[in-house]
Amino acid sequence: MKKSLLKYVPTVFIAFVFVQSLFFKFTGSYETTHIFGVLGDWSGLAFFGEYGGYIIGTAELIAVILLFTRVHGLGALMSLGIMSGAIIFHLFTPLGIVMPEFNEVGDIVGNDGGLLFGMACLVWLSAAFLSIRDLTNRQGTLYKIADKIVNQGA
Known about the structure:
Blueprint: H1 2-26, H2 30-43, H3 46-67, H4 72-92, E1 100-102, E2 108-111, H5 115-135, H6 141-153
Antiparallel strand pairs: 1-2
Helix pairs in contact: 1-3, 1-5, 2-3, 3-4, 4-5
């Protein structure tokens, strides 16, 4: 029972955060437009500003689906990669840690106080835990992949 909780609590947390963010990413919300617009301008990749929300939202949806399958280690690793990118973008680009909040007509009415960044860090920690857990478990997908790579190289 305890082993199941160690797996499912972080899994459900990641799924909750990713799935609730899909609404924003797939509806072109002001928040998503702001975030990916800043990143598109900063990177010079105009397509990322326009389609980045859809790309990342799709990746998050795939990660969530994988988290609830036999290959959940791949979902955890994918979540870790997605959140690593998010954290790096928050820390090392003009995006910053504190995100503006918008009203229904798109006016900035405040800020989130770093909530989005904090959630990204918690998801990253959960995904890192699940990835390491799968990598150190002989039945884990990541363990089997790593073992296959190591034994093919030997």
